[in-house]
Amino acid sequence: MRLDRLKTQIAALDPRLYQIASLGTLLLYGLLSLHFDVSVLQLAITIGTALLTQYAGTRFHHLPSFDPRSPLISALSLCLLLRTDDVAVAALASFIAIGSKFVIRWKDKHVFNPTNLALVVMIGSGVGWISPGQWGQVAWFGFLVACLGSLVITRAARADVTLTFLAFYIGLLFARALWLGDPLTIPLHQIESGALLIFAFFMISDPKTTPDSRAGRIVFALLTSLVALYVQFGLFRPNGPLWGLIVCSPLVPILDHLFHGIRYQWTEPSSGSLPAPTLCTATCRLSLSQPRRFS
């Protein structure tokens, strides 16, 4: 009985709380043990700007309440990945990330993952760069376990896009190495990156910016991995997954039109699969048309 009650309580938790705990723990460990090259002032400005922007958007759009969870996830991801010598750049990145949720929208759904958009703007303009996330095997494996744990917390509701992307991306990396006759230590080194883990588990998996249906998300993950590898090995640019996601994100409305699914709600994680036609009631139709919140 107690075990069943504990399972019920865990299932009722908002998945974002676990994500915040995972990212926050990694950031604290990085500052204390790995000596991340980022100042406390930059961290404070990044997080503070994100929360202030979310609050301003909440007031401007007359939302029922201020919700700090999603902006905290974006801000913590920026703290882990974005590097710059100017705290104003960190503030601008945080403002772009959270502000984009309220501005760049299509049918009540924000188009770009906030962190992904901010990072691409910063590195594209040359005012910032991305930490490769080479944290050592202990931190990497620890964070991998935390990321996999997030799939359990969300009951694997949207694990398909993460697992599909990793399968395609890593599989093609190894296929390329075998084709060229490279040692397999090269793709192994390429995937031992904290930046790749953050991308796979906290960016491309964002249920608010990915297709609603499982079929759409699988196609989306495949397209993103192909573009990422083309950028990385065809255009010889770093951070291929970031560029792949930013290029493919505008395709989400098209995939939602081609593959229908139920929109995601943080309080009720689901795979987006539609009920059988004979069981689809007015409630189902309502969930399809329900507008997304700014989170």
Describe the fold and architecture.
Helix 4 (69-81) packs antiparallel against helix 5, helix 4 (69-81) packs parallel to helix 6 (114-125) and helix 11 (214-234) packs across helix 12. The chain has a two-stranded antiparallel ribbon. It is an all-alpha fold and 295 residues long. It is built from 14 helices and two strands; from the N terminus they run ααααβααβαααααααα. Mean pLDDT is 82; it is low at 278-292. Helix content is 66%, strand content 1%. The longest helix is centred in the middle third of the chain and has 22 residues, at 159-180.
Shape: globular
Low-confidence stretches: 278-292
Q: Provide a count of the helices.
A: 14
Biggest pleated-sheet summary: 2 strands, antiparallel
Question: In what range is the share of β-strand residues?
Answer: under 5%
Strand order, largest beta sheet: 1-2
Roughly how much helix do the residues carry, as a percent range?
55-70%
Order of helices and strands: HHHHEHHEHHHHHHHH
State the end-to-end distance. Answer: 35 Å
- The number of strands is 2
Helix/strand/pairing category: mainly alpha
Short overview:
The chain has 295 residues and is mostly helical. 66% of the residues lie in helices and 1% in strands. The chain has helices at residues 2-12, 15-34, 40-60, 69-81, 87-103, 114-125, 137-153, 159-180, 185-191, 194-203, 214-234, 240-248, 252-258, 282-289; strands at residues 82-83, 129-130.
Secondary-structure topology with pairs:
Blueprint: H1 2-12, H2 15-34, H3 40-60, H4 69-81, E1 82-83, H5 87-103, H6 114-125, E2 129-130, H7 137-153, H8 159-180, H9 185-191, H10 194-203, H11 214-234, H12 240-248, H13 252-258, H14 282-289
Helix pairs in contact: 2-4, 2-7, 3-4, 3-5, 4-5, 4-6, 5-6, 6-12, 7-10, 8-9, 8-11, 11-12, 11-13
